[in-house]
Queue: 4 jobs
Job 1
Amino acid sequence: MLRIYEVFVVAGKVFVDHPYQYEAAGIFYDVWAGLFVAAVLFIPYLMLSFLHIKVANIFLHLLHVIVIISYIALLITYSERTTPFDHELFTRKLNDSVETVRQMTTAGYKVYLPFLVFIPLYFVLYYGWIRKAKLSAKAVRMISVTGIIAALLVAFASPSRAWFDTSNGYYLTCNKMMYWMQDSYHFLANQPVAALNKDDPQLQEEITYYQQSQPFTFSSREYPLLRNNKVDDVLGPFFSLQATPPNIVLLVIEGLSSDFSGKHAYATSFTPFLDSLGEHSLTWDNFLSTAPGTFAAHPSIEGSLPYGKRGFSIMNVMPEHLSLTKIMKQNGYKANFMIGFNADFDNMGGFIRMQGTDFLLNAYPSKYREMGIGEEGWSMGYPDDALFERSLTVLDSMQQQRYLSIYHTGTTHMPYLFEQKLQYEKKFDQKIETLHASNAIKKTLRQTKHVLTTFMFSDDCLRKFFADYAKRPEYSNTIFVLTGDHHIGSFPTTGPIDEYHVPFIIYSPLLKRAQRFQSINSHLNIAPSLTNLLVANFQLQQPPTQVHWLGDVLDTAVTFQNKHAMPFMTWSREISDYIYKDFFLGGEQLYQMKPNLLLKAVVNDSIKTHMKKLRNNFMLINAYVCEHNKIFPGGNTLPGEKILLKEYADPADKLIFSQLSDTAIAPDFIIPNTIKYLYVEANGEALLQGKEIDLHPTIRFALIDPKNNGRDYLYWSKRDVATLSKNDFVMGAWNAISVNDLFALDDYKKVKDLVFETAIYTDEVPIKVKLKNWVVRIYGVK
């Protein structure tokens, strides 16, 4: 019966021919899973029955209900992501899981319906039929033996991936609980390696292997990624550049996927403007992000950086590193970050600020309206049209200077609410009526209507943005770079690599001609290519002589090929996917990549072994350079020399308990108006009791205008306390925590006695956290 429920909530959402045939085949694996569960529960049930049969029966019913609840939760997750839930439970922070559950419980009554149906149905079937059934001793023995065999052969309780041409067919067929159990077992049995110590002989072997297997000439063993910057300018020949360096506008579109955008969109395109722009641009059809989430986008795009343990930007203290932003600022550019929602989502803003970004858009006048609050209980801030219009107004108010402007849009993120939604739903219906596509695809598109309408709206916002930009005086010397941060999770994928498949377009009035490329590239290739474009064609004041880029420059082959070897970080923050030549390793399954990034499962043990070695080697190098600050020997890559302005130390063990939403944990500091940037370091020890994890206490840094003896919060950043430990945070114990941040102050020069505040903050009260050995250091950067 749960399989029938799955047919209705999942089968129509995925891109696969004959989904119901896969669901029907899956009944065999459901029976196997049921027999396995029965065999596992038999032993504790038998032991309890010797003590008290009623207690044993209650115990068994309780476990069965837990199995039903768990399975329904797995199906709900599968229906949202169109990939089954894996070992993510063991890799996410507890507070992240609590937040996910909290959001689900506020998503309306529909999420509760299957629980309200299937749990009572279980008891109806038991008392109305199963309890009354009379089985012969022979039947009992046969079922028992079958259950034991099912348990002994549990390794085969899911079909082989090699039997399926598409991963969606495989996912539909699997029993979702068995899939989760097997995947979790594999993860726990093969724990990720810890960072090696610099004196460990194995580390030296791994560094040698890494540097020999990459197409670069490395210059250091202490910093394994460091290499001389070979100025290979692959983009310059496509441009008629002016005498002065161009402005760069980098547009990162939330969730933009090649499944529904571009010439080869599998689900047909819902972005007509971007499609037309691509015909007049440099366009890569086979382009990849490095993860299926926002957490990886900006470090990969702007820094070609390693991934850290859970994403580079999520590290409590980011290692010293280079980035496109830092390079351009060192050479006369002003850096802007334009966003319409909370910039600290996945600590994106923390990464952006640490690049020395001059301006971060966070203030919207009252004429702009935020998007609606969804059933999940939150809004995604200001819509894309407001973001684009406000950003151009801000640019007009700035002193004329060449610039790097980075945009990150938000309308196309859950809860997909914007003022013109009804208007675009009508446009969607009209498009579907005239669409030349199979009924199966049309059905899937209709089920994701709430997602696709937002991209139709965002596409029109981009159309107006480019039309408005064309009227600006600097337009003729501007290069626009556009990509998606990742494949949107609310839209079905066609295969494992589709989790990363995003558009990539470079447009400019400076282009000599348009060109479409079929070679495989990724976010890791953007920063090296743009850097070399500037270095090769202009006399920069401080061109980078050494870099740590993971990626090479963009491959401009017009035929389908892949010359990059690179890893991916999955939803579960595990580095388990890898591409090499024309192969893709998804977990333990090897695929061959075809044009348009279609995959075919293959068996090639030598290639698979080599790719696993490359993947494991990267994991070791990644862990070492990130945890030991061995990415870049900059010493201090801040936008200037830092000067200690104030140090506050409190060694006392104190309980911070307050009914207010925030409590200061260091004295207010009045910022001198001669300072261009404020750099802050804070560290100490923190203790949270298990039940307090729901409160999400955070360390908050804020810039405050104290006018009229008030506290007008001009800007603030927040980091969850439980994410600020180098190792996994342990509830109920003391954890060493540390965090740093950087704030540009140019936009606050007119504020008299600008105050910097360090506080504990939570969205719910009371606050309850223990701190000791707390130290805050505040530096000025001129």
Job 2
Amino acid sequence: MHYRLRYVRLATATLVLSLTSPLLPLTLKFEPLAAQAQTIQDRATEAKHLLQKGSQQYRQAQFKEALAQFQQALEIYQQIGDKAGKAEALNHMGEVYNQLSQDNEALKVLQQALAIRQQLNDRSNEGTVLVNLAAIYLNAGQYPTALKFFQQALDLYREIDDHTGEASTRTGIGLIYYSLGQYFKALEIHQQALALYRELGARGEEGGTLLNMGLVYTSLGQYSKALKVYQQALTIAREMDNRPFERMSLLNMGLVYTSLRQYSKALEVYQQALAIGVPAGEARIIRGIGFVYYNLGQYPKALELYQQALGIEREEGDSVGEWFTLTNIGDLLKEQNSPELAIVFYKQSINLIKAIRKELQVLPKEQQQSYTETVADTYRRLADLLLKQDRILEAQRVLDLLKVQELDDYLSNVRGNNNTAQGLPNLSSEQQTWTSYQAILNKAMEIGKELTQLRQIKPENRTAEQEQRIAQLMNVQQKIVEDFNNFIESPEVLALVQQLNPKARKADLVNNLDQLIGLQDNLKNLQQKAVLLYPLILDDRIELILTTPDSPPIRRTVQVPKKQLNETIVAFRSALQDPKSNAKASAQQLYSWLIKPLEADLKAANAQTIIYAPDAQLRYIPLAALHDGQQWLVQCYRINNITAASLTDLNTKPQPQMQVLAGAFATGRYSFKVGGEFFDFAGLPSAGVEVENLAKTVPSTTKFIDKAFTPEVTVPKMDDYTIVHLATHAAFVVGTPDDSFILFGNGERITLRDIQTWSLKNVDLVVLSACETGLGGKLGNGEEILGLGYQMQRAGARAAIASLWSVNDGGTQALMNAFYGHLKTGNTTKAEALRQAQITLITGNSTALGKDRGSVEPEPRNSTPVPPQVANRLSHPYYWAPFILIGNGL
């Protein structure tokens, strides 16, 4: 975790009174002019006092109280017709709504304030509102929109030569580039802001900028430079006698020293920070010291500090800090070979996540990133421990919730359901253990509260009695640590360990029978002889979890390091994208890791459909293209990808009558830049033929080609059809949802985030026949692929078909002809139609391809020439393997 100061510029406009405003109350108009003016002046003064009081409450984080003051001021300004005052009150309200994470309300009042400032030609305060609007979108992770408002503000401030506004705006822009991982650009912008603040003599803002620069240097691994700027920030804090600022600087230095494994220096600055008598950051410092002792292997001391931190966090209602500390205690217990007890603490930490999500929007972005990474690690560590104890159904649920969490971290819009809302329930013995621990924690909270109050007093100002009391309380804390150590060895915990020991317990069938029956019934109802496959990638191995309709969950362990797995994934994906390569070697290697250990189980289940929830980097390769040495996996099984079982409706059957809306980008060329990457897309000649063939196959098809294929025309009509087919470029790239997009025939783009506004409640299938997943030279975590499937599901569509790389234009036309040829019969599912289309290309059986296959010379989507004999190479997985079905496969 890192910390930075955030600066929000408050409006400081002079109040302008208007006696002729139509908003002036009628009762005032009948008073003498002098009396009217005096009344208005008094009311304006009252409103100004309300603003001042609200601003003070805002600085004290009393946001609801501040909002009430600003609303009263707004009513007065409306009554007396003071537009400038009204704009100022609205701007303050926007800032409060931002802190309360009520983004819609914040945007509403800030847009009103902006319109008034523009009407009054109040340029400086117009910039203030633009900055605050940008801050809303920055906190929401909508970086392109935030950047747009910051840029408008920057242009305005430079035009009116307002260096203060320019510096503040550059700080915001720097934070955006930092959040996007563009560290050198962020550093450049922060340095520009720093120069302006130094020119202005704004020492506080200079210190805040130095902290921001320290975060960038830390992210770049340039620790010496980070320490240098943190030291400069510390000097400013001490010069200004700003004790919270001083503590923050020391805390960040401690984090850097910890990263450098210079533990003695880390302890030194942490102790300096702890000695500063302010409440802010107390628990974080104590937890940081605990982490140092944890790294030194001094577990009892680390545990003592973690418990102190946890007590303070509980007392302060800091659920984010509490979550981190619970996770740290789980890590410590795992290292002490107490997996059963570690599981209890990991479960508690994960069950706090729902509450933490609401608080994330008010945290700085680097803290959010730290949170996201640590959450995923916690899920994986918990699943690891559960699997080692053969608690397979619990582990499967953890992996399912992990996928939901990854989606929410990426999209920030994931709707849970009754299933996900249950979290991870404790077993009865675990609950008893946790309840017993609460009694110890409550003691720690009482002691921690009093200690915190005493430590806020500077040592030189403490009385002898206070020093004596601190010593007494520290002795009591030590006794609490001993109580916890005794608790670990207590009969009830030993009973928990015995009950949950793999050799003593009765698998998952006793404690999770309802969950197992629910999963099995779901699979049986599909009538597809389906099984559910969840792989889990760990540092030293792969865990495979297979759920079948008729047997307990099955766990198979494959000893392969994550590094080796990722290298094979990269090699496989590279081979798949080259139609001249031999992809079978890496395909067989991956088969030996992912499928071969389950061959006997799949055979025993008589499986015909694999419902597959890939983990992390496995999302970048198609399971269908694995090879057993004799044939491709798709020749043996239907493959149905899902985002997460808890979010997927697998049983709803498609509507009997197919109605297709098809759009194609066939001619033209569009170039643009998105997320720092340049794209140059030419029309797809075979896309037009693809859509024409589709219309012949399904006569009830509505077509939009090229310029007619626009978002304005196409999107509103989608829900009138059962299938939406988009034969156009789309790119799903590692980054944010705003970086991934679908290109329409008129050159407009819809981002992955925009899809959440679509209405697809009647749509059975969305087909994106020309998309690709761009990795930018390295593997991501596959959230962009996971996110596509979820966004379509969230909009109402039952399933989506997309491609994992850019495919030859003519090859796609051939596969889509075959797909719809099978699907139109009405006797086959979406998953089976895709499987049969892929087998058609593999075997060269052209009967399903339609007469028009090859009627247009196949052109590559990437404009690379394709030899005339391309039609004879369609058996290569380059042509058929990239297409995956996500969601309901019926």
Job 3
Amino acid sequence: MGRQRVREIDGSGARIAEVGGKAASLDRLVAMGFPVPPAVVLSASAYHEFVALSGLEGYLRGLALEDPEGLGDAGAVDDAFASVGVPGELEASIRRATAGLLERGPVAVRSSATAEDLASASFAGQYRTLLDVGSEEAVLDAVRACWASLWSPSARAYRRRAGVDDEGLAMGVIVQTMVPAEWAGVLFTRDPGGDPELARVEAVRGLGEQLVSGRVTPEDFLVERATLAVRASDEVGVVPPFLEDLLRLGVRIERRFGSPQDIEWAFADGELWVVQTRPITITGIRRHDDDGFDTEPGPGSAYTPIGVQEMLPGVLPPLLWTINAPMLDEGFRRLFGQLGIRVRDGAPVSVLGRFRSRAALNLSTLRDAAASTPGGSRAEVERQYLGRAISEEAEEVRAGRGGIRGLLAGLRAVRTRGGVQGEVDLFADSVDLILALGIDLSDLPVGRLLAYRARIRDLAWRGYAAEVAAAAGAAATFRSLELALGRWVRSDASSWAQRVTAGPAPTGLAGCNSTLSLWKLYAEHVPGKAPYHALTDGPPETAEQRLRALGEDGERFLQAVGKAARHFGSRAVYGGPTWDEDPSFVWSTLARCGPALAAAPPEERMSTTRSRREQAMEELMGKLRASWKWRVTRVLTGQVVDMRRRMLRRLAADASRFLSLRERAKASLLVLGGEERRIIVEGARRLVASGLLAGAPDVELLTDGELERMLLGEEPVSPEELARRRQALVAAGEGEPLPDVFEGLPGVEEEPPVEGDVLLGWAASGGKARGPA
């Protein structure tokens, strides 16, 4: 089918790479039962055949070299295509396929590029449509004109701005029965740039080409989606009687396609026809480092990556962002509810944002939470959720004048500890039970695979909420301890608070402390060898080879490390790459940490976190007892039993317990993320085997919803759109990290306001205007 020159648009599953975006959308509409005029499409194979046999390949390759800006003569491109005939067999195929349509009357010949109707760039008005074509000879001329429009200067410039590569592009061409339209126009199922509860209809009498070309000013209507009530946006004459039916049709198409749609329609003889649908794109051409999933910042909203970069670190591809962001956002909202925090009307509602493919917290939302908390302050709320204060009042709190607020925050956290403990325990135990099932994903039909994924995801939502609550409790109780110590040890308060609450080792294999168990494994499985001998004698990339050279001992150690790596699940982000996908991460850490661990005294290597905390607490108590201020205060207050020691020990124990709960929740979430990753990898394998993805890594360029829809057989995301997203992610990764605090788009200078008269409106297809400039 990939080499088929011409095919009917009959709902049989035409792909964008085969027939272009417009034809693939029409084919989906037919398959879904929507009214589409009869049509055939010349495939991308037909275009490639024409270019190859006509000798145009060299000319097209030279276009970019001669005219890198894409601002050359459009007429020269048209002449080049019109000057060569259509090769014999291809011409015969076109004549046979279109003869039946021409018997019914004139046809429309319409371009359908493989890079068209993308989620981030519609290409509206860039390619040709020719109407009322009445003969086979005229069809052949129109087809060549559509092919030529792929290389028009404006289309090439548009592709560059949208980050779409010219390499491998092709042009399908639709030949479709003309509808003798009494009315025609465009339906936007959501008003672009306006109220999303309204739809916008632009209508003209006669053919819709008058509207698209800008030759006629349309009648403009707004329709309430909920009630179907029609509003005329300007003073109009006649309200077409079919607008209610048109909106019903449009809403059905929107639901089936999964996003707001820009629908071209025609009305004739009492029937509505759909001649095109594409996703609405109203944000314009994106920056080179925006893959289409970044956040549009709210007016006056401030953002910060602090406090979220541990959970969602680095550049996040669309799949990981669309999986993780909703769950983490919901975790914060649940915590707000548990603490009785009410967000004011009109305050920012989104807790998370994504900028340059990196996650950030909506600082304005947290500050609003502070305003609604009795006795709360910006700085203390920021400390609780971000780990440190970044507001202007931070110095006041740091100086000790915010102590009461900090203690109140700690008390609130302690009151919620029981609930957090239960949630973390339940979540961790549930994860262990799921892993014990050991389900073989390769045997599951796609429906059951996705059902299993839904169960995993339900549990992950609960895990994220537990981690956020534990992290907030840890920050609050740690701050309370810090403030209490500040009275006695002043500038050393933070250092002592860290020592007496020393938390468990970092999750995964990223930190040296986490590799202690693997050091023990090495000592057990490779007796008589120098510690980490096979890992430190050469580069980490050849560690496996050197270990296998040790014989059975090395093989046993490799198996033990593999089992440990699988147990840790995802490395950093729920559903992200796992430790066992690329063992080089493990070997690099072992090689880096091995010498230090081997050089440490045995008692230090084997000491527990708890014993280190107790030792630090005893040192602290000794320091306090030797302090004259500590002794004098006890005498002046008449304390027989020193309650301050009990209070400090209790605060340290509470902070340690929350820290432990946070790490346990995080560890279990990443373990569960490893199970979700197995499902993602299996889904990618199936899509690659079906030819819907070029390679398994491309799965991360999909959104969560796109992955599921593609597994269920719906239209795949085009290779051109995936390439654009990939280029944007690479550009984002090469950019600077996000600043600690920013408003608007980070690193983007606001344009100065334009002076003089301003023409207001919203973007549409190309037209003509005349006036002084």
Job 4
Amino acid sequence: MKINFLFVVFFVNAFAYAQQIKVVNVLNNAPIRGVAIYNFDETINTVTDVNGEANLDDFEPNDIIYLQHLSFQVKIIEKPKVTNTLKVFYLTANTRGLDEVVISASNFKESKRDIPKKISSVNAQAITFSNPQTSADLLENTGEVYVQKSQLGGGSPIIRGFSTNRLLLTVDGVRINNAIFRGGNLQNIISIDPFTIQNTEVTLGAGAIIYGSDAIGGVVSFYTKKPQLSYSKSVLFKANAVLRYATASQEKTGHIDFNFGHKKWASFTSISYTDFNDLLTGKNGPNDYLRPDFVTTINNIDQLVVNKNPLKQKFSGYHQINFAQKARFEPSENLSLDLGLHYTKTSNIPRYDRLIRRSSSGGLRSAEWNYGPQKWFLSNLQLTKSSKRSKFYNKFKAILAYQNFQESRINRDFGDSIRNITQEGVDAYSFNIDFEKLLAPKTRLYYGTAYVFNHVFSQGTNQNIINNTQQAAVSRYPNGSTWQSGAVYTSVKYKPNLKWVFQSGLRLNHVVSKANFVENNRFLNLPFTTSSNNNQALTGSMGLTWLPNDVFNWKLNTSTAFRAPNIDDIGKVFDSEPGSVVVPNNNLKPEYAYNVELGLKVQAHKTVALDVNTYYTFLDNALVRRDFSINGETEIEFNGTPSNVQAIQNASRANVYGLELGFLWDISKYLSLRSQYNIINGKEFDGETESPVRHVAPNFGNTHLIWNNNKIKLDMFANYNAALSFNKLAFSERKKVDIYALDANGNPYAPSWYTLNFRSQYHLNNKMTLTSSLENITSQRYRTYSSGISAPGRNFILSLKYTY
């Protein structure tokens, strides 16, 4: 009897243990908490605990089981192969990019292999290693996003030939694009603190179904770090402190963050401060990129001064502070409430490309040109709930957000006593709710609704620097303007088996904008006093993914996208280029893009991966800046200067097409080679005139040779960029002589360039990490395409991180 009892106890324990698995990091054997475990049709699911363990009792004996985590590659296991011991499964970090989990495609977690479009992602581990100075630099490090800079405090992403207000930026699911996002280069992205980012996803190509207006060329989604709960009675406390210094700009950065986690609630706080001095460019390159002189003002008298060090780009330095506070409350496993507060403020940011413009006499045109302090505040409240019983959803997410944007422009011509000041602000309110519903074991439905309201404030002032008197002047935008958008969407994913995935969706948008020009008509004799745009847009997408085996992953996607005119389009007044002024136009319609892309990912022998994507986009009814007239006049006086009249108009069409090539070779357990190259071209058609597309970047890429073990990571890499001749520059770029090099005929062009770089990361112990980089080792003097400031010369960056 005693023997039988012991046998029964042993059998019961063995059977229970047979259903238990542990999931750990392949690099350091650390348990991974929060791994989602589910079967093929997702009718059964569980999550690993703080020890990385989970029980598989609820799964069927022959189930195919998925192990999925945001920071690791998806792993597929078979239930019958789980033996009668505690089975350990190893997950690999998302370095290859073929099996990642992404959120941006539907606002819910999905396997990247199921998405019929290209999504490039960067996790927190990769961000820490690349050690970016701004979020713009973070995107540039991907090798798939081109970044333009008009000044050191800038960074305007270019994706597949589209930029600025034809790209959509989001933070934690909240759209950052507002009613005054312009067609010219933007620097709003630097407001996002890279120290707070957990994951970044770049959707290359149209993303209008989920995100609506502006998502023509792509969507850049930043997901910030979430407060971590302890899931126990004890308090979970974590903290990080970072110090960083860079030689090219004498950058000095300090950062601290800390996390308090209890069983059901947690708090995360982050503070960063960065100070940049004037940037030093490289020693080897075109003399056109040097800074031979600059303007100084003494006793209100402007003087042209010889620059003793032409490599120092005076004036370009600025400083910035970032603050974030997040809180999380999780009363149950199926319900969570997240609050996020973000605030950033810069000093004045000198607009370097305007400070180097020459006047007709050969001197410098501007005595001063600054962006005033750029301030951004975001508050968002997110409710996430899952349910197995609801008829309408399995998961839903609701986001309520408020943002405040403040920016200004301060400029004065050389020798002029009048300083022109414009100040702008936007209050942005948004609400969106997204649902996910499993209609059948092989069919999943996504649907939702969104609403956005923007209120614009703007004023203009002329200030006399001699007697400090001020008087009202024309504002950049009609004060009190509004822009609002309402939308509904739906998307269906059908996955009949492990080889095929079909996805399609529709979105209906209604956009209304209103502007009043009464105040500005004191200075501009416009033929109208109000403007109202009322537009609807229907967009759709269809795509399929085919995985015939473990080697090939084919993707085909067609989609449409749109951009509705905003307040910047219908109501802006500004000097676009020397001798030209842009005035309002109240007769605008949305522009539409039609896109098709084909991609192939090849995984050979588990050590070699090849990623090839080709795409074509047709932009119709494009909103572009063209010559215009007011009351029959094609020239007016603006800020004391006779100026050619221009306006934004639906006056163009464009074709953009390209090829993206990615390669990864795991040479050994520790050594890998990866490379990315982007080939792009495009033509714009304005009536019978054909010209290059303004934001089509030169061909560009990078190559990395990486050594990585548990304690040290080394990266020797090269960045390279093809040339753009004068004939390949857009017509508007050919006029910007001051920011380009000159060819043998005296015409502006963008020379090719390359940099050699080395980066290392060493874990001194389990708390201290040292990261160092030597960038642009050969001290090349270059500018990325359309940039007004030269890139850093030889630059040594040293960063020390302490983790508690």
